[in-house]
Design brief:
By secondary structure, the chain is α/β, with parallel strands linked by helices. The protein is 35% helix and 23% strand. It contains 9 helices and 9 strands. The chain has helices at 19-27, 70-82, 102-109, 127-141, 157-167, 186-201, 235-242, 247-264, 284-289; strands at 5-13, 45-50, 54-60, 88-94, 115-120, 145-148, 211-219, 223-232, 267-276. The strands form 2 sheets. It has a 6-stranded mixed β-sheet, sandwiched between helices. Strand 7 (211-219) and strand 8 form a beta hairpin.
């Protein structure tokens, strides 16, 4: 009888390479929010794959960027932590990106755990280009495996999963297999769903200047009642979020409620409020309060 395997598989990469799409596809459920904008993922989000033979704890992490605010520094700290507590590291890139910063390259090459390069979005390319990308990453990082995939179309994800299982260490499950698919609670995902809609509905600086909290979440059998606060950095941003005669925030509420109802599987009543916190992205106390340790 084979022994049980269990481990943390941490996913890192630049913004917009499809890390969140990959994790959602592997889980078969949307946990990480996905948009076309950079900096969509701010927190480390764990998703859990359970079978009788193994437990994989996937971690989606913020995209690797050069910090412009203390918020970005906290996000980068999360990425660095995932390089030290992983059993397996996956570096996700995409078919058109053939470069890596020297400092990240050195960190990756110093890893003592199995490390894969995953080349995403190969459905948007041709065979010769894929082969060229594989050769490039072999030369740059010499990983244990280089796996071309399309997370959006579920192409070659079985190969990736099999390679992960092969190198997982033996051991008991870290989380109860009867628990939820993630270690995060429903309030966290409610806030992320609202932030996802802000990223989709608003342009320019607005999506990057807001944070969402859920002060109250009251559950019942037929309806969940949620109070959400959207914090922004300036009064002018508050006016944009509200929109003319409140039309923009009304649309935000409608779209967020639809997605929340799909997520929880029942009716949702959502109450949205906008508040201003000057320059919160550079305020240590506020960042800690928002969960950026």
């Amino acid at each position: 009888m084979e022994k049980h395997k269990s481990g943390f598989v941490n996913i890192i990469g630049k913004p917009n390479v499809g890390k969140s799409t990959l994790m959602n596809a592997m889980l078969g459920q949307d946990l990480s929010i996905v948009t076309s904008k950079a900096q969509t993922t701010r927190h480390r989000i764990k998703g859990i794959i359970n079978t009788e033979e193994y437990q994989i704890v996937l971690s989606d992490t913020p995209g690797i960027i050069k910090p412009a605010y203390k918020l970005h520094e906290r996000m980068l700290n999360v990425v660095n932590e995932t390089l030290t507590d992983a059993d397996v590291v996956i570096y996700v890139t995409e078919i058109r990106d053939l470069k890596i910063e020297d400092d990240l390259k050195e960190k990756i090459k110093s890893l003592l755990v199995p490390f894969f390069v995953v080349i995403n979005k190969v459905d948007d390319s041709y065979q010769e280009k894929v082969e060229s990308a594989v050769a490039f990453w072999k030369e740059e990082l010499n990983p244990m495996a280089i796996i071309p995939i399309s997370a959006l179309h579920n192409f070659n994800l079985d190969s990736l999963l099999n390679r992960i299982v092969e190198v997982l260490p033996e051991g008991p499950a870290y989380f109860d297999k009867d628990d939820d698919i993630s270690d995060r609670n429903v309030r966290f995902f409610a806030a992320e769903i609202i932030r996802e809609q802000i990223l989709k509905l608003y342009q320019k600086e607005i999506p990057y200047s807001v944070e969402v909290t859920i002060p109250t979440y009251k559950e019942s059998e037929t309806i969940d009642r949620i109070t959400a606060i959207v914090y922004c950095a300036r009064e002018s941003q508050k006016a944009i979020i509200l929109g003319h005669q409140g039309k923009a925030i009304k649309k935000l509420g409608i779209e967020s409620r639809k997605k929340l109802e799909l997520f929880v599987g029942k009716q949702v009543h959502l109450d949205l409020t906008i508040k201003v916190l000057d320059d919160w992205r550079n305020n240590e106390r506020m960042l800690k309060g928002f969960g950026y340790e």
